[in-house]
Amino acid sequence: MLGWLAVAAMLAVATVGLVWARRHLLLVAVVGRSMEPTLRSGDRVLARRVPLARIRPGDVVVLVAPAEMTAGRPTRPDAADTPGLLIKRAYAVPGDPVPVDRVPLLRRGGEQVVPDGRLVVLGDNPSQSYDSRECGYIAEPDVLGVLVRPRPRTD
Fold it and tell me: Which residues lie across from 92 on neighbouring strands?
């Protein structure tokens, strides 16, 4: 009888752990060259879900791809019911000066500082990156998390 209780307890702990991980962590595969040399296509990264207020400039973030980018294919090709994702570096967070030197598109808004609920992101490989230079600010609901660490490649 005690053996079954131990097994039930272990299953309960495992279930709680899985639920916690699902709510707090994301495992994302890198596709494309926008974050080279930091990340390469095929790398997998582990990200922790955090609110925008906990993101700092320089953090690598996982985002829902803006609608402008996904016109015609609003979902990922490998998972039809999930939105496309981007992995970029946070360049400016709410309250930081608007980086119009790096992101001229933001001159249109006229703001002196990045507004609340918005984020400016750039890829590490600018010539291969779709980022705030093309789509402007990223809205807070589209920010999913911050990179915890890369996962080892499996090739």
Answer: 120
* Confidence (pTM): 0.78
What is the spatial distance between Cα 100 and Cα 111, in angstroms, rounded to a whole number? Answer: 10
Give the pLDDT of residue 26. Answer: 86
Question: Is the bond preceding residue 97 a cis peptide, omega within 30 degrees?
Answer: no
Supply 87's token pair.
């992995």
Whole-Å CA distances, 117 to 11, 38, 43, 109, 127: 40, 27, 29, 15, 27
Is residue 19 within 8 A of residue 29, CB to CB? The reply is no
Cβ contacts of residue 143 below 8 Å, gap of 6+?
A: 51, 52, 55, 61, 63, 119
Q: What is the dihedral of CA 12, 25, 31, 56, to 10 degrees?
A: -170
pLDDT tens digit string along 28-46? Answer: 888 889 999 999 988 889 9
